[in-house]
Structure formats: structure tokens, C-alpha cells
Sequence to fold (446 residues):
Amino acid sequence: MRKPKIYPVRIKVNGEWRKTAVKAAETLLHTLREKLGQTEVKEGCGKGDCGACTVLLNGKAVNACLTLTLQAHGQEVTTLKGIGTRQTPHPLQESFVKHGAIQCGFCTAGMIMAAKALLDENPHPTREEIRQGISGNLCRCTGYQKIVVAIEAVSSQRTEKK
Amino acid sequence: MEFIQPQNIKETLLVLKKWGKKGMLVAGGTNVLPDLRAKSFSPEALIDISRLESLSFIKAEKGGIRIGALTPIAVIAASTILQKKAPILCEAARHLGNPLVRNRATLGGNLAKSSPAADTAVPLLALEAVVAVQGAGARKRRIPLDQFFLGPNRNALRAGEMIQEVSFPLPSPGSKMAYRKMGLRNAMAISVVSLGVLLDMRKGICRRIRIAFGAVAPKPIRIYQAENVLLGKEITPELLQACGTQAEKEISPITDIRAGAEYRRAMVSVLLQRVLSEALGMGT
Fold:
């Protein structure tokens, strides 16, 4: 059997250039978790149905499981850890905690990234637009209501600051 | 498996020719990656065209609209020019997959996959779109969309050819259009039935009509005889009903995990009457 080809790849993850080497068909999800230690990116279905692996690729929310690592070569990837820390959480992280928008927590990392992409593009979405914006992210615990409220709270916070 | 990233269209066509059926084009990856994971096929080379920016465009020209094959579905959904000239295409794009998928999935990919339920195919059939395809060393072929699809996941692309763009004539300013997708849920739904209509009315008479359906036949289809029921006539509720009855005869739905064939058949008539009424502002 022929040895599978391995390709070097360089991706800017949360502002820092990271290097590794991957096979042709390796997904960004696999590389982030298994090679770069970004285990905040979750694997749910692995085929684009659940959104647990949502990351930002050049600012756009995408499924890391549907992106080839080599397609992300030279590009910017942002994961949950890139937008907030325990000491300085992102307003969405604070809001999710405050509003009880987290139960088991498995969807949260992807959900917050989808919400961030939504608010970056549309800072004051309606409830319907919020529901649309997170429609690629499944949550099996909350029934979504508290997630929608948490995102809405961040959006109206931004209005007050202005 | 190899990974190849051609730098331009010409290079892509040469790579496609070299690898033949062993090479798989990847753009947004939203179809290809699940298929790779399911081992539906095992190509020897992945040919990444996601960075061929020259194939990502929406242009309104005198004769019509041209859309590059690599235009993301999200861009089509948000396009102001399309919203103005062909709102049914925007609406179908807004209902494809979910926001994450729409950021990656491309128009060319949706058509090349040739699912019987392909979301963009339905409005594009109603708009009488033409697909421009090309292979290395060959002339560009322009295939009308209703001849492009051949069956479930089958199309008229020959080995080594790729879709480059989709174009359609500008609908006349007064054209009435409507689109509906019926799925089991609002997001991430594969259509149970989807349909798009386009009508031109003059002095109360239907002068032009196009009706297209998805997910009710082995491929997305136009239903010509149902169109003829309304053509040249004044449209009344009775005539709409006759049109719906005719539509049922022109489809060949199957039973799958989403719906039964009989249910689909019943919905075709009901939805067609509703969508036509909506386009005409008749109210039901």
C-alpha cells in the first residue's frame, strides 16, 4: 500500500500561527482537537447536522467538521477560547451563565460562536433573527428559550452603551 | 489520497482531466465531507477549488443575471440585486441548510450534487437558468437546467467537466414569483416538497408561466402540462384547482424517511394552489 501523503499546514488559531501536518482529507475539527489541543471545539455528529464544532473561519461561522484542514491553510480560525477567558469572559459567555442558557454544556462552545458571528453581522437582531442565526446549532437540553434570551440581552446591552 | 489546490480555472481543468473519475472537486465541502465520512466514495485526489475567487460573483447584465459556480449560498441569500430581480432564488438560498452550511456551500456544489431536493434548483428551473460547464481543451457547453439533471445525484456533466456559472434571463419587471419549501422543521431540513413559480400577467390573462418542483420526482422538475392549464387564461380558483390536479399527474414522488409518496402527491396540489395564489395576490 502506498504511504498516505502528509501535507504541512499553517493556521492562525486565536491570533497565533500554529503549524502541523495532515492528510488530504483531515477535517479542521480533527486537527484542532487532536493536534492543536483545542478541545473546546466539540465533535457531535461529525457531518454538519449539530453545530457543536462551530468555529469562525475568517470571521464567518462554519462547521469545523465540514472544512478540510488544508482549506484553512494560511487562514484565521477563532474558537471559543479565542474570544474570552475565565478572568475576562466575552459578554456572550457572561450572559449565557447569567441567564442559565447552559445545561449540559456540550453545545455551548459552538452556540456562542454562532451567536458571536450573528451579532458581529447584525448587532441588534430580532428574536426571529436570533433563532435563525443559531438554527445550525442543536441544543438537546434547554429548549433554546434561555439561549435566545441570553443572546438578546447582549444585543440590548450594546444599545445601552451607545 | 492527494490534495491539490489549482491556482486558476485552466489549471483546475487540467488537474480534473488528469485525475478523471479518481479526482473529486471540493468547494464548500458540505456535501463532499459527509460523503467521504460515510465512505460513499473514495477518491484518490481532492481538488480544492474553494479559493478560485474568479468564480464567485453575481453580475446583472443587460441580457440577464450571471452567478459564478463558487458563489456561497449565504451571498446569494443576502444579495440585494437578486432580491430585486429574482427573489425566489434568495428565498430558496435562505432555506438551504443552516447559516453555518450557507457560509460554505456554493451554488455550483448544490447543482453538481444533483439531489432531487436541491434547494437552488427549483427557483432556477422557474427562472429558466442555463448552466455553463467546461472541460480541459473543450468548448464551454451551455446546458439548460431542465436538461442538466438526469436522475438522483446524476447530471449531464461529463468526466473532466466542471460547472463555471449559472445564468438566467432577467424576469420582466412585472413578473410575479413565489417560492415555498416544506420540510419537517425550519432549519437543516431536506425538502418534503418545494416549489417555485413565475408568472407574467397582462390584462388579467396569464401570458407566461413557469412551475418547478423539488423532491417529488427523481430530479428537480418543471411541470409543463400544468403550466399549460393556466397559460393564456384568466386565472380563477377553479382553474388553480385544475392546475393542481394536473400537477399531481406529472410528478413521481417516492416514500422515504421524510414523507410518504401519497402525502407528497396531496401536498403538491395544495401547495401549488397556495403558492400561485400568493404570487398573484389572490389570497386563499
